[in-house]
Amino acid sequence: MTTRTDPKPTTEADRDRGWFGWALVGFASGALTLGAAELMAGIMVRFGWIGGTGSPVLAVGETFIDHTPAWLKTFAVNVFGTADKVALLTGMGIVLTVLAAGVGLLLARRPTAAYVAFVLLLALALAAILIRPGASATDVVPTLLGGAAGLALLNACRSRLRPTAQWVAPDRRTVLQLSAASLVGAGIAALAGQAVSGTTRAVAAARSAFRVPTPVSKVRIPSGASVGVAGVVPFVVPADQFYRIDTALSPPEVDPATWSLKVTGMVEREITLSWAELIAKPLQEAVVTLMCVSNEVGGDLTGNAVWTGWPVRDLLALAGPKAGADMVLSTSADGWTAGTPLTALTDGRNALLAVGMNGEPLPVEHGFPVRMVVPGLYGYVSATKWVTELKVTTYADDEGYWTPRGWSAKGPVKTGSRIDVPADGATVSAGKVAVAGIAWRQHVGIDGVQVRIDDGDWQTARLGADVTVDAWRQWVYEWDARAGSHSIAVRAVDHTGAVQTSASAAPAPDGATGWHTVNVTVT
Ligand SMILES: Nc1nc2c(c(=O)[nH]1)N[C@H]1C(S)=C(S)[C@@H](COP(=O)(O)O)O[C@H]1N2
Ligand SMILES: [Mo]
């Protein structure tokens, strides 16, 4: 029989458990740090004491996104698609777990080094917070408090576990307590993270109180805009089904009461426009199809909506752009930028400072309170959400967010078309089959759509009503399907008579091309 005062020599098993115990100490401290910081950030954001940049997890993630090299970004989008944000957060969780466990292991052998490592990691998070656009000094408070809690736990564990030259196995009770503390900490982090990513009370209240003013020109969408085939994307896409693309892990919360739009740079008069001034302007309504440059042939990163807003050209006319300017750099509340040709914002097209989407206030994730919508250009060079500044400048002097990341400085939308039904790989019954989808060439317009079955001749599809050159058109072709395997291709003809190219190009650097083709089995 052995006694407590006469311990056995350390065995392999004890060493393993000891290793695990110290790693757990590190993990627990990391989880407590983040849990406390996220909880504090959630509370402080809710009460409006700090901006949305107080969350260390979001700040580090967004800083990482902004500094991701182009190849890694391409890799992430290829592998994870629109789940890339979830993938990033998961990756961060894994890296943090390893780092925190490392701090715990160091604590057993080289406590000073462990504290130094912990403080360095904390300093990195603080730096990430402070370099976020719009960050203020108080945004570091949650992370500092979390860090203090984490350090206190490290210290308590160290005095309790009394490390020796050997790995000392913590007793079962300590391990259980630590596991529980880590889990609770991580749980709080997750919950508080949700609180942060949810709309703050002030912004939600402002949004639900806002009625989109009646525009001076109201759009009427003829029923013929839809070809009436089930499975084709609706002509006007409801906001909650509209694709979303941005670099924000959590959409910026912008209170209209404090929002303003500054017009700066090469202008006769700098202008600051308030929310009250903006919504008192004569607003226009426009049907515009937005499209992401990352949209693959056959992809779904596109949507059509009725936007309500004030023409950007009217604002620019008040500011008076100076000779020589050829670009407007728009900046969002989270520091993202787009470079738009000055001509596209002054040439009379429906480029809007939009406050409404399908008659409702913009959803927060689509840019509330104000975004830009410019017909004819991919979103990355025009559709700035949460817009706060328009700088009149030149392509020689400035560049938008995606340009140094490998995307073209200019991004006019290319002619495209997509088959929505039948879906690729579908099985259909022989006889009449509706082949249908959409075609687009924003701000030029679509005059025709043609469909080809296998190696047959191009057949003319019936087009939905032409609502505006700025929006997509639906089309349908009644196919007399015979049994067998068939491939169906589509191509569009734009308003200049140009036929959509068959040459396939990847999205980078300025938009994908090629004919969308689906394969179906007819029985
Ligand atoms: N502030 C901000 N605006 C942005 C972006 C962004 O990352 N940040 N992405 C742009 C891109 S690439 C596209 S395709 C459109 C998408 O708009 P949506 O999310 O409303 O569909 O927003 C544009 N506006
Ligand atoms: Mo995009």
Automatic annotation (TrEMBL):
Q: Which residues cross the membrane?
A: 20-40, 85-107, 114-134, 140-157, 178-197
Specify the domain of life of the species encoding this protein: Bacteria
- Give a single Pfam family match: Big_7
Q: Which SUPFAM superfamilies match?
A: E set domains (SSF81296), Oxidoreductase molybdopterin-binding domain (SSF56524)
Any idea where the Oxidoreductase molybdopterin-binding domain is?
A: 251-402
Record flagged with keyword Transmembrane helix: yes
User: Which Gene3D superfamilies does this chain map to?
Assistant: 2.60.40.650, Oxidoreductase, molybdopterin-binding domain (3.90.420.10)
- By its UniProt entry, which InterPro entries does this protein fall under? Ig_E-set (IPR014756), OxRdtase_Mopterin-bd_dom (IPR000572), OxRdtase_Mopterin-bd_sf (IPR036374)
| Entry keyword set | Membrane, Transmembrane, Transmembrane helix
Q: What is this protein called?
A: Molybdopterin-dependent oxidoreductase
